Amino acid sequence: MRFVDLIDKKAHGNSLTTEEIQQMVTGFVSGEIPDYQMSSMMMAILQRGMTSKETADLTMSMMHSGDVVDLSDLPGIKLDKHSTGGVGDTTTLIVAPLVAACGGTVAKMSGRGLGHTGGTLDKLESIPGTNIEQSMDSFKKIVRENGVAVIGQTGNLVPADKKMYALRDVTATVGCVPLIASSIMSKKLASGSDAIVLDVKTGTGAFMHTKEDAFELAKTMVSIGTHVGRSVRALVTDMNQPLGMKIGNALEVQEAVEVLSGEINEKDPLFEVCMLLGENMLILGNLAKNEEEARKMLIEKIHDGSGLKKLQNMIALEGGDASYLTVENMKKLVSVKQYIDVKSEADGYVVGMNAQAIGTAAQMLGAGRATKEDVIDPSVGMVMKVRCGDRVKSGDTLCTLYVNDDKNVEDVIKMMHEAIHIEKELCEIPPMVYGVVTEKAVNE
Ligand code: URA
Ligand code: CA
Question: pTM for the full model?
Answer without folding.
Answer: 0.94
